[in-house]
Specification:
Blueprint (H helix, E strand, L loop, with lengths): L1 E5 L3 H12 L3 E5 L3 H8 L10 H10 L3 E4 L2 H5 L4 E4 L14 H13 L4 E5 L7 H15 L6 E5 L9 H6 L4 E4 L3 H11 L9 E4 L1 H32 L3 H9 L20 H14 L5 H14 L1 H10 L7 E5 L14 H11 L3 E5 L4 H8 L5 E3 L12 E4 L11 H7 L4 E4 L6 H6 L3 E3 L22
Parallel strand pairs: 1-2, 1-4, 2-3, 4-5, 5-6, 7-8, 9-10, 9-12, 10-11, 12-13, 13-14
Helix pairs in contact: 1-3, 5-6, 9-11, 9-12, 11-12
The structure holds nicotinamide-adenine-dinucleotide (NAD).
Nicotinamide-adenine-dinucleotide binds next to helix 1 and helix 5.
């Protein structure tokens, strides 16, 4: 089948290359000429495990092409996926300008039957807006060309995107007619040989399913983070509570980790948009507002621990920072908690040397040249003479460093473990001060029950 994918970012490039991998002819379109030029030269603009190999193979075998011209992509296509960004506007609502720009262009180029598929995460009601925009363009051209609009939200996880796309837990398809349902099922049939379901539903339900999924996951994170802060006050251990509640089959263990707050290009904006949708439809989403507020507070928690340990004024302090990306296995820095930490520490006068195995280039682009912010290319050498080590992303190489060497290199034996990856008892026994999230290991204001980390600071 011939497929056009508009927007060649994390979702579009993965969608396009995985569809090509199954034998389809795919044209990936983007307005970013630099990105398309790189892709044409075989340079992959994002880091995603397994992506480069799959892109190169399908380009070589001529199933996957890249262009800036939508009309080229639509030529002969039966399906057109919209996978452009839907970033948050000032008021938190999803900015649909990229989706609408693509939609109008489709209307201006369309010359045959097409299934237009919203894969971008878009608010409920967007399919209708898309349909109206294409119809308006066709009317202006005096044409009556049949087309359908489908909602097909994407659930891939950055860092495991290829695996998720090739073997999805489920595929959600929102349509309003049998023909498109059947054609969409045919397109996706090679991806569900594992018997995972293709769920067909009405368009509004499909649009909302994506938001509901992200809100549920974000809610579990905020739930654990709020509990973690309480744990630090009362001397309880969030990791034990996780096991205690997660063993209940109704709850389960996944997505129950306390940390520095969620980031990335999806949870923050989608939770905000849901709150907005509620307001628009007169159905206030109190929970969404709370999830967001808890997360904003949590992003300030690691900086708070540092201030408690080193004081309000940090000039003269130099910290080593391990991990910048919002999670491991990606170079995506959007809404990463490390950004909040960096701003706060710089503002208080500290210097920071940061290391991330993949995301440093993206971080530098986002943060620009900053006084007292440095980047290292060796995670151990950078520790020399630092006041403390701060861990913000749980990349595998940070999980089991030579802790004796870490201690010996630093000025003070202090680790702020924003992901709770280190064994507190072990670090404590080595004379390392280990501060983490929700395990009673905070620098001060501990209540009596929280005395287990009292030595060392
Ligand atoms: P992205 O920012 O990585 O990529 C979007 C691409 O669209 C960019 O390359 C941009 O240049 C291009 N673009 C913008 N306007 C265009 C236009 N008019 N014509 C052609 N190309 C255009 O975004 P992303 O992370 O891939 O996300 C895309 C959508 O998918 C968003 O709605 C997002 O919420 C959703 N989503 C993202 C993920 C994820 O993990 N990143 C997962 C599921 C769903």
């Amino acid at each position: 089948m011939h497929v056009c994918v508009v927007g060649t970012g994390y979702v579009g490039l993965v969608t396009g290359s995985c569809l090509a991998e199954m034998g389809n002819r795919v044209s990936c379109i983007d307005i970013d000429a630099g990105k398309i030029e790189k892709l044409q030269q075989g340079i992959i603009p994002i880091y995603e495990p397994g992506l480069e190999e799959i892109v190169k193979r399908n380009v070589k075998e001529k199933r996957l092409t890249f262009s800036t011209r939508l009309a080229d992509g639509l030529n002969g296509a039966l399906f057109c996926f919209i996978t452009v960004g839907t970033p948050p506007s000032e008021d938190g609502s999803a900015d649909l300008s990229h989706v609408l720009a693509v939609t109008h262009e489709i209307g201006r180029s369309l010359d045959h039957y097409l299934i237009v598929i919203n894969k971008s995460t878009v608010p409920v009601g967007t399919a209708k807006i898309v349909r109206e925009a294409i119809t308006a363009e066709l009317q202006m051209r005096g044409l009556e060309i049949e087309f359908d609009v489908v909602s097909n939200p994407e659930f891939l996880k950055e860092g495991a995107a290829i695996e998720d796309f090739l073997r999805p837990d489920r595929i959600v398809i929102g349509t309003d007619n049998v023909r498109t349902t059947e054609l969409m099922k045919q397109l996706y049939e090679p991806f569900v040989r594992n018997q995972h379901p293709i769920l067909t539903m009405d368009i509004a339900s499909a649009e909302l399913t994506k938001y509901a999924a992200n809100a549920m996951l974000a809610m579990r994170i905020s739930f654990m983070n709020e509990f973690a802060r309480l744990c630090d006050q009362v001397g309880a251990d969030i990791s034990q509570i996780r096991v205690g509640i997660g063993s209940d089959q109704r709850i389960g263990m996944s997505f129950l980790y306390a940390g520095p707050g969620y980031g990335g290009s999806c949870f923050p904006k989608d939770v905000k948009e849901l709150a907005n949708t509620g307001e628009r439809f007169g159905s206030t989403m109190h929970l969404m507002q709370a999830i967001d507020a808890v997360n904003e507070a949590q992003k300030r928690y690691v900086p708070t621990l540092i201030v408690r340990r080193f004081g309000e004024h940090l000039s003269g302090r130099h910290f080593a920072l391990w991990g910048l990306a919002f999670k491991p296995q990606t170079d995506d820095m959007r809404e990463a908690p490390s950004l909040v930490l960096i701003e706060e520490l710089l503002q208080r006068g500290a210097a920071i040397t940061a290391y991330d195995p993949i995301a440093m280039e993206q971080a530098q682009k986002l943060l620009g040249e900053r006084e007292r912010l440095f980047y290292a290319d060796d995670m151990m050498e950078m520790l020399d003479n630092k006041d403390a080590l701060i861990l913000m992303t749980e990349w595998r190489q940070f999980r089991q460093p030579d802790l004796a060497e870490v201690k010996q290199k630093m000025k003070f034996p202090v680790i702020f473990d924003g992901r709770n990856i280190y064994d507190h008892a072990k670090l404590h026994a080595m004379g390392l001060q280990h501060y983490c999230i929700g395990r009673g290991c905070v620098p001060q204001h501990r209540m009596q029950g929280a005395a287990k980390c009292s030595s060392g600071f």
